[in-house]
Amino acid sequence: MPPAHSPAMVLGLPGAWATEACVRTCPTACVCSSSERGCSVRCDRAGLLRVPAEFPCEAASIDLDRNGLRFLGERAFGTLPSLRRLSLRHNNLSFITPGAFKGLSGLAELRLAHNGDLRYLHARTFAALGRLRRLDLASCRLFSVPERLLAELPALRELAAFDNLFRRVPGALRGLANLTHVHLERGRIEAVASSSLQGLRCLRSLSLQANHVRTVQAGAFRDCSALEHLLLNDNLLAGLPADAFRGLCRLRTLNLGGNALGRVERTWFADLAELELLYLDRNSIAFVEEGSFQNLSGLLALHLNSNRLTVLAWAAFQPGFFLGHLFLFRNPWRCDCRLEWLRDWMESSGHVADMLCTSPGSVAGLDLSEVAFGHSSDGLCVDPKELNLTATSPGPSPEPAATTVSRFSSLLSKLLAPRAPVEEVANTTEVLANTSLSSSLPSHGVGCWGCKTTILLISYLLCNVVQHVVFGLHMD
């Protein structure tokens, strides 16, 4: 009679067999191991220039990242019915033969990211992958995606195709009813057309950030009623249609930061009752229409920082209520009575900070929370005073007119003063007497009459000069 085996030994045999089978057929330069998730084959950074000829039949995961693979031929991986995950990131793939993935009928995740020479995919590349749920095509420098490329993937849930060269939202997305997450950031997409997202009824997250989007057409998101996160930040949007986000009643995050929006209109967010995070930062917004945020009663954070706002009216939030965080820094705020409500709200909630005043002059440089608004006897708010803070350029102060006139008068007196005798001049320096005009004029001799005439002429000319100078100084 054969020896009886203990239950522990019996239960341990299948695992032991699986581990042995996984390691026995492990390709050279690869490392194989078995775990609860199945047989894992790691061939990353192995210097491979071609796909190994054989893999363990039980392989559930194969990692071929960071090698030198350039080409995938027909049935490149053979038949691996247990394979769920295949990663080929950071290789030099330039061509994938249609049918390269035949034999991988159970594959759920395929990563082809960072193959910058790929650039083109045949419409039948993924024809055999009916169970694929996650596809990563990031940084492959793809210019387009064939219309039928993704139609062969009815189970697809997540698509990562960022850092590519698309100029429009790939038409291959249309009609993918099970798609839930799409990443198309950091590309060259210029518009979201009304038909771009047609039929994406299960889409929950869409990232179009850091593209060149200038236009979002009306009704572009009408089929995306399940959308929860929409990222349109860091594009070139200068405006939006009135019903741009109509029907997005489940949206929780909307990021419009880093665009060229000049105003906020009340119709944009009318249907977004579930919105929690709204980013409008880093735009050129100078005006927020009354009632713009009136339906956003569940908002947790509103980012309006780094815009051109001078005032924000409480009417923008009426008739709803707002209890979340306001980010309002880096705006040229005019802290007059129109912002008294906000100062009071800041004191009661404490959810706003770094809101520096630019004007009026008496409060410029203060935080709004530090501004003390005055009130009249009727209880009405009184605006802080505007001060003249115009700076003058440094330089010598203009000389007062009286000082200039006195200098000319002194000069005139010195010119009209009598000269000292010749003998005194020989022994001393010339001295100008400080006497009046009448006492200095001689009263005898014909020769002195000529002196009188000369002196009177000089006096007349000097007086005219003084008058012109004084007149010019008064004009200045």
UniProtKB/TrEMBL annotation:
Instruction: List the signal peptide residues.
Output: 1-18
**Keywords of this entry:** Leucine-rich repeat, Repeat, Signal
Q: Which GO terms describe its cellular component?
A: dendrite; plasma membrane; postsynapse
Q: For the LRRCT domain, which residue ranges apply?
A: 331-382
Per the record, the GO terms for biological process are: visual perception
Would the keyword Transmembrane turn up in this protein's UniProt record?
no
Q: Which InterPro entries match?
A: Cys-rich_flank_reg_C, Leu-rich_rpt, Leu-rich_rpt_typical-subtyp, LRR_dom_sf, LRR_TM_domain-containing
PANTHER family (alphabetical): ANTIGEN BSP, PUTATIVE-RELATED, INSULIN LIKE GROWTH FACTOR BINDING PROTEIN ACID LABILE SUBUNIT
Q: What is this protein called?
A: Nyctalopin
What is the species of this protein?
Loxodonta africana
